[in-house]
Amino acid sequence: MSRRDSVRNRERLVTSAREVFAEHGFGATLDDIARHAGLGTGTAYRHFPNKHAIAAEVLRDATEQIVVDAEEALAIEDPWDGLVQFFQRTASRQATDRGLYETLTGQGDDDEQARIWPRIVASVTELFERGQRAGAIREDAAPQDVAAVFAMLGPAFAMSRTIDPELWRRYLALMLDALRPGHPPLPVPPPPAAALDTILRSSKK
Amino acid sequence: MSRRDSVRNRERLVTSAREVFAEHGFGATLDDIARHAGLGTGTAYRHFPNKHAIAAEVLRDATEQIVVDAEEALAIEDPWDGLVQFFQRTASRQATDRGLYETLTGQGDDDEQARIWPRIVASVTELFERGQRAGAIREDAAPQDVAAVFAMLGPAFAMSRTIDPELWRRYLALMLDALRPGHPPLPVPPPPAAALDTILRSSKK
DNA sequence: GCTTAACGGAGATCCGCTCTCCGGTTACGA
DNA sequence: TCGTAACCGGAGAGCGGATCTCCGTTAAGC
């Protein structure tokens, strides 16, 4: 049987990783995580072969929540309200969890992004098209634009971190206003749906 | 007197730097620039003590253009048309010049940003407030939001690079629609004007 | 042609991150 | 209570990527 301290330290590491990734993003070091947990690096590497392994464990919960957000949004009768709730909840999570933003956005753990992405896309597309059929969303927008909106919120999250934790709500509201009907037609067609996965990976080298 | 080949090589380096910074951003290496110019690293370091020095020379022209854009926009009678032209021209420059975006956004050369920033802010504030007085811009927007909009366009520029060079126009149009009057009030006040310089530095460590 | 400034690029140096190794410590069973 | 296996900690080896130097070679200018 395994020792009590070993079990306890593993938990501490996971908790620490959650906090460190949230605050400093995926660029954080396993050493950082260990130190933040009050443990040595050796201990960290005994429990997890590398950063990827511990990240996988931490990220799964966070990304899974996004899917839940989308499903809960679909349960709301009013299509626009549903979309707004989805955006707000999901954005709120990303505003306080830099690692989550990076993962969804293709700047973090590729495997986890690949795993969760199709499921998010499926739900969001449904949510979006429902809103569009109901006339709550402008005709010339496309589901792909949702991904773009989240990508563009990234800098807003960064500003929130240094200026005012709630600032991102202002810019999300701005984007939502733009998605309403009653605007002149958009000048360029949306990116092809097939490019959806590439959309956010773009900032990569 | 200095040798002709020396003069020629210096020019080649500057041209090369312009191209390399535009394509790969400020993270590019002096070695990269030298190789792209078809010259050796030693040559690069003889002409410029470090990356900062050559960047300063290259960036000045590019940032200066932004100021010109703003002034030209002020010369247009219709306040809204002026603002749109400013956004389109300046965004167009940034879409094709990654180094320029990074500089304006505080992810590149800090000195050059500090140098040009006040002048851009002055012009843009005037441009923006003129539009607002004319009722072309929603009441609850603020000049600071312009900086935020440019920050948020960053991911759109990245997408343009990999998907379609003109794609950023779609998302700029989206943001401009949102700046028009006739929307529900924004939920959070704009960042303080004093935070303007910090706004974009946010993505930094 | 000769002198000498300028060139080129291999490699020294630095830096930050990843991961290992092993002496010291501690939990747990007998 | 004691012995031992399991676990801990953190110094530092290894690695990769960037910056910058050094010096033998090249060619411009007279």
From TrEMBL, chains A, B:
The keyword Transcription applies. Pfam families: TetR_C_43 (PF21597), TetR_N (PF00440). Residues 29-48 bind DNA. PROSITE patterns: HTH_TETR_1 (PS01081), HTH_TETR_2 (PS50977). The keyword Iron-sulfur does not apply. Residues 7-66 form the HTH tetR-type domain. InterPro entries: DNA-bd_HTH_TetR-type_CS, Homeodomain-like_sf, HTH-type_TetR-like_transc_reg, HTH_TetR, Tet_transcr_reg_TetR-rel_C_sf, TetR_SbtR-like_C. One of its GO terms (molecular function) is DNA-binding transcription factor activity. Keywords: DNA-binding, Transcription, Transcription regulation. This is TetR family transcriptional regulator. It comes from Kribbella kalugense.
